[in-house]
Each structure stands twice: as C-alpha cells, then as structure tokens.
C-alpha cells in the first residue's frame, strides 16, 4: 500500500525549532502541566512552613504568599480541564515533598524558610520567562496570567530577601540544593 505524498513526507519543524523539540500543542500542554505542578508544590511548601511557623512573626507574611499561590493553582487547575491536559503523574510526590521541604526549612529557622522561598522563586522567574518566549498572540490570556504570577513570585523572592534569607545557616548550600531540586522537578513535571 502506498501512502499519499503528504502523509509520507517528513514534517518540517517550526521556525527556530530543533529536531526533537515538542510541537506547539505539546509545548503548550507541558507549560500547563508543569505550571500546575509547580503551583501545587508551592502551595504545599507554604502549608509545611505554616504548620511550623504559622503562629510566629512570619505567619501573616506566609499566609499572604500562600494565598497568592492558591490563586495561581486555581487558574492552572482550570486550564488543565479547559485544555484537556493531564496533570503530572508525580503529584503525590509533590504533595509530600513540597510539604516536607516547607516544614524542614521552617524547622531549621525563619531565615532558612525564607531562603527556600528565594531559591524556588528565582528558578520560577527564569522558568516563566522562558515560557513567555514560546507563547504567541493566540495565548494572550495565558501570557497575561504568567506575567502576573511571575511578578508575584518575584514579590515573594523580595520578601524572603528582606526577611534574612541570605543569613540562613549554610545559605549557599541550602539555596543551591533547593535550586537544583526545583529545576529537576520542572524538567520531570513537564514530561511525566
């Protein structure tokens, strides 16, 4: 059986795309999936921190940041449904891992909890910036939301810095470890 010429011809990659790069629809699904996973993880980090520090001097600040993360999560939950994108299969890991990261850094101390926030938010800022490079005019609503969320994540980073994150015990090691883990979580959540 001979296939029609159009069906057998290799597809040309999108302009600027490299062989093996995801197609635009798959890239968009990855964006929604990973952003949902990230916001879910962030919600869980703050829940872990609040379980330890909720009644302390940073409780109000943590509740403010947690409320913003819940708003981000709600948006991406709606996007999963509207765009028929499956969530990451690793959400149970994010559930436990996020809470543990928040609780453990809070147990180390207020500054370590703030260092966690700074490390995560710096990675997320770069992650959102990279995503914005791939969104076209048809995704103006998503772009607008990502820009808003990115600004709020940077606000969280600034709050962490203003509250002594850089004075946390072993800050370079703690911050570096959290950054590496966050980047790994992003890579995995896009794909699994």
Polypeptide structure, described:
- There is one protein chain.
- The protein has 192 residues and is mostly helical.
- The chain is 74% helix and 0% strand.
- Helix 2 runs parallel beside helix 4 (91-108).
- 36% of the residues are buried.
List the helices and strands and how they pair.
Elements: H1 5-8, H2 24-53, H3 59-82, H4 91-108, H5 110-132, H6 140-162, H7 171-191
Helix pairs in contact: 2-3, 2-4, 2-7, 3-6, 4-5, 5-6, 5-7
- CA distance, first residue to last residue: 36 Å
The tally of helices reads 7
- Rg (CA only): 19 Å
Amount of beta strand? under 5%
Helix % is over 70%
Number of strands: 0
Low-confidence stretches: 1-14
Order of helices and strands: HHHHHHH
By secondary-structure content and strand pairing, the structural class works out as mainly alpha
Summarize the structure.
Helix content is 74%, strand content 0%. The chain is mainly alpha-helical.
Features:
mainly alpha
């Amino acid at each position: 059986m001979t296939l029609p010429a159009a069906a057998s011809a290799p597809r040309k990659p999108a302009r600027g795309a490299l062989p093996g790069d995801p197609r635009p629809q798959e890239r968009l699904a990855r964006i929604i999936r990973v952003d949902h996973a990230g916001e879910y993880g962030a919600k869980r980090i703050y829940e872990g921190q609040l379980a330890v520090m909720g009644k302390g001097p940073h409780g109000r600040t943590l509740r403010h940041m947690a409320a913003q993360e819940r708003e981000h999560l709600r948006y991406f939950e709606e996007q999963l449904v509207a765009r028929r994108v499956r969530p990451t299969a690793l959400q149970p890991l994010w559930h436990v891992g996020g809470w543990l990261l928040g609780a453990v850094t809070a147990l180390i101390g207020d500054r370590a909890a703030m260092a966690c926030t700074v490390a995560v938010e710096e990675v997320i800022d770069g992650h959102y910036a990279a995503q914005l490079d791939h969104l076209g005019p048809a995704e103006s609503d998503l772009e607008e939301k990502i820009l808003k969320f990115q600004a709020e994540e940077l606000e969280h980073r600034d709050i962490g810095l203003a509250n002594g994150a850089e004075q946390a015990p072993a800050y370079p090691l703690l911050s570096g470890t959290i950054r590496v883990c966050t980047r790994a979580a992003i890579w995995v959540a896009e794909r699994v």
